[in-house]
Design goal:
With about 160 residues, the protein is mainly alpha-helical. Helix content is about 45%, strand content about 5%. Among the domains are: about 35 residues, no CATH class; about 70 residues. The chain contains 5 helices and 2 strands. Strands 1-2 form a two-stranded antiparallel ribbon.
Length: about 160
């Protein structure tokens, strides 16, 4: 083993742990003066500015104004009605269709603790659309029954 390198054994770790139990860290009861706190704050602020974490007030105001303009159809990644991602469709419908407190199929009240949660179920031919009227809020069990009934009906037609 090279000089100055020591690998701690389990016994050594146990002894060290027992020796240090109950000790307080050296800075537990130490209080920083207000002047020292200000110095630390200034140093941290300078470091953040140097690294580019903090923008000037003019830059923040400009970014705020741009954020207000770049929403909805003006956003750079706006896709309009050409949304193919199921998750994106659900997010948009969640914004447009407020959550009910009752299931649209069985009319039972949704539990606040989450035992009987409501989820979105699409009504119209099980095709994902962006129209909020093509969705309903239903319990998970009602959703499964609804989907099963639809799929059985679809099989009978084929």
């Amino acid at each position: 083993m090279p000089k100055g390198v020591y690998v701690k054994t389990e016994e050594h770790k146990r002894k060290l742990s027992e020796k240090l139990k109950g000790r307080k860290p050296w800075n537990t009861d130490k209080k920083l003066s207000e002047e020292h706190k200000r110095k630390i704050s200034r140093t941290v602020l300078k470091r953040k500015q140097k690294l580019g974490y903090i923008n000037s007030p003019e830059a923040r105001k400009k970014m705020s104004e741009l954020a207000k303009v770049r929403t909805g159809e003006n956003a750079s990644n706006w896709k309009g009605d050409d949304v193919k991602n199921v998750t994106a469709i659900h997010r948009r419908i969640l914004k447009l269709k407020p959550k009910n407190d009752r299931c649209d199929i069985c009319n039972k009240v949704a539990d606040k603790k989450g035992k009987t949660k409501l989820e979105l179920s699409n009504i119209k031919n099980h095709r994902y659309t962006l129209n909020p009227d093509d969705y309903q809020w239903v319990h998970i069990s009602c959703h499964r029954k609804y989907d099963k009934t639809y799929l059985n009906f679809k099989k009978e037609l084929m």
